[in-house]
Structures are given as C-alpha cells and as structure tokens.
Amino acid sequence: MKATRIMAAAMLIAGGGLMGHLAQAQSAGLGRTDVLQHDLGIAGREVVQARVDFAPGVMAPRHSHPGVEVAYVIEGMIEYQIDGNAPVTLKAGDGLYIPDGAVHSARNIGGGKASELATYFVEKGKPVFVPAK
C-alpha cells in the first residue's frame, strides 16, 4: 500500500496535466486510480493506464479518447456501448478494444462493484477523457 501511495505521488508530480484530464471523468460512484503514464516509441504518442472502479449501477458517461483504449475487466460485469454497435457485456477476465475516437459508455450491470484496467494509447498532450456532445 505504501508503494502505491509513493507511486501515486510521483505520478501526480511527474504527470502534471494527466491528473486534471482524468479528474474530468470522475463522478459519484465512479473512481479512477492512475497506474502509468509513459512515452511510446512513436513521436507524439503515449500510453496511459488507469484502474476504473464502478459502484453498482453506475455508468461512465458517453465519451471518447484521442487514441485507442484496451479495457480489461478485473471484477464484476460491465456493459460497454460503442456508438453504432450492439452493447457488449464483459465479465472478469474479458477484454475489449475500443477504436481511436469511438464514442462509448460503460455501465456496471452486476450487483457488486465492477473494475476495469483501462490502457490508452493516445496523442500526447491531449485530454485522455473527452466528454461526448
């Protein structure tokens, strides 16, 4: 636990703008824990990883990212809705690829807490979370 706090403090100092961008995604019953932010070997791109926790029935509102997202469900059941596609329900151990710029939402449809590990391969310097209009 102490190592997690130290890493989080280092991310806050080193990550600067990331925390502000991810804070936009926070809402009641929806929590984010930053795990990693690192430059990729591709100019202008970075990888960002975060754990997202959903209270029962909570939905992450429609949004997009300036790159792709790979979601891995750690616990519970989450229904993902990518605009133009049928809803997809994932359980612990399942993963989902969300294309660059795709507007989507996610909702905990189980009776308990649900969590995912979200890995974003995005344009550096842009907000990771972009609310849909």
TrEMBL record:
Record protein name field: Cupin domain-containing protein
Pfam families: Cupin_2
Region forming the signal peptide: 1-25
Signal among keywords: yes
Entry-linked SUPFAM superfamilies: RmlC-like cupins
UniProtKB keywords: Signal
Cupin type-2 domain segment(s): 51-115
Taxonomy, superkingdom: Bacteria
